[in-house]
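Co-fold these.
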Amino acid sequence: MKKFLLTCLFFAGLFWALSTYQGLAVQGKYDSMVLNFRNDLSSEQVDRELKAIASKYGIEPKFNSSFSKSSRLYIVKGDAQVLDKLKQSEELRSLTEYVEANYVYSMDFIGGGTTPNDPMYKEQWNLKAIEVEKAWQKTKGKGITVAVIDTGVSKVDDLKNTNFVKGYDFVNDREDASDDNGHGTHVAGTIAQSTNNNFGVAGVAYEASIMPLKVLSASGGGTISDIAEAIIFAADNGANVINMSLGGGGESKLMQEAIDYAYKKGVVIVAAAGNSNRNAAFYPARYPKVIAVSATGSTGEKAPYSNYGAGIDVAAPGGAIARGKNGEKGDTSGGILQNTIDPRTKQSVFSSFQGTSMAAPHVSGVVALIEASGVKDPEKVLQVLKQSSRKVTDDTLNYYGAGHLNAAAAVNIASQGQLGIPDFLRWARDNGYLSPRFWIDGGAVALIPKLIMVIGSYLLAWLLNRWFPFRWNWSFNNGVFFGGAGLFFLRGFYLFDITQLPFRIAGSSLPELGNAFSNTNALNPITASVLLPLGLLLILLGHPQWKWFAIGSAIGTSACLATSAVLAPQMMWIGDGTPAIAFLSVNSLLCFGFAYLSIKSETSSI
Amino acid sequence: MNIQIVGTVEYIDIGTGTWAIATDTDEQYEIWQPAPEAILQEGLKVKVSAKVRDDVFTMAAIGEVIEVEDFQRL
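Predicted complex below.
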């Protein structure tokens, strides 16, 4: 019975696979037909037939190449209807060996990939960086509308095949929301540039629709009231995603209310973090319900201008253009290339720009792909974005938020519904613990190693206490705590606009003090060694109370270094290999040794 | 709010580009347009009295936006 069932299942599967397999022919595109005339025909007969085809169908057969003459292989170009008639012609069938569609074999069909035929696509390092080709195998954003709140969008040549829905120009109060600056058209291009159209460049979600909303004037600035109105317009007119590549202003209740309104209606709002290399996302990216995007260059490093730290949710390519010697633009290949307008002539041009303005539309495009894959709730979309981003392990200053944007992984997670457990940040956001004043980076601290350090240091202290019973006092407790783990939760705490350094120092244990000043988790060999506890012991051993702090710190440091040696042997200058493990282990033992000797001498002298 | 600042005029290549004043204390103010033509010169040292515009946003998003009311070349 079991065998029978398995056999049925096998055939059912086979039948399903065969019935859903579309084959190469069904998917192929063709704009020409191959005619292979019979070899026994005279060349006069062939000529006569070719002339007949030319006059009857208005198309002229040509040799495929100079090699085709002997094999009598001809190509006729024309639209599908004409080619279909040609194929059905009885006369032609009798004179030819075969008539068949001349399929265009592009990478699309041969490798199962989706490399578009846009000639300048190869210059778009940014699209490769987010792995958008793999995402296109599943979706291109069809059915999703992205509102571009910007300087307007002009229908330049490479936006001709892109879908547009009705927008509005809030600056001049009219329906036509054309661009007079060049910024908004560029941003719209990154989201949905006409792609696979044999022209120009590609866009992230090129089957999504653009809703152009002009709020910034020709000089690139606009008022809060216009922007707030545009957000409400987008929410009321069916936008699924809002892209705001703008910032710099202050906090505004009007804007906050507009954002809350759109969010409640299920609109995902994405904004640029800002371009002043400061520790804070600007408004409107700073609002907890807005996805704040920092910018990276072509190597994946944070772009020099990009804001970072407090409020950043995710990083995406924003480009980095070096300045030439005379202050002019230098090599622009590191920028983001799209089709836009020249603001002076209003003509269509291809330009490379840089900015978090360019990074945000990458995220908006990927959000469109996520939504087209079935996940539409703003909270869940953000979760997919974060879960799918490529993590940056050594990101202590939160340059990259959840990590580098990854379209392929995002679409995979969204289409399979593999959402993990909501992260701490989402919980904090939902419960109102995040605000435009302070922010918590949930990923800043690796919690498990910290807990091991705390438990480990108290275990060591307990062990020593068993050998040499001493009075467990407050100073000793503090020493163990600050030597081992410190107020580690402070490392992820941010106040907007203020350097995070004080919190990093306050959140460091003794061995971590040396790397509190740099954007790395790699321990500094000067502080992550026996030196600090030994120094404290030498200075404080004469003091009746503080000596216990010094002893405690030696025990804590010993546990911290030992845990690091096992779990994360990462050191400045030394690296993360065997030398680092050896260094940490030896210093851990030395710390324990000094603590042992100190306690031994202290308890014996009592 | 009105402020007085001393700094250098800079062209900032972000997005389609914008004009800013960078102070000696490393602060950056974006110049709201339209601004007096004469101030828009790369490297110009100026003393500016301006109005802080916290009711506006810009595509350059480089920081606080100021509307220049008066300026002196230094």
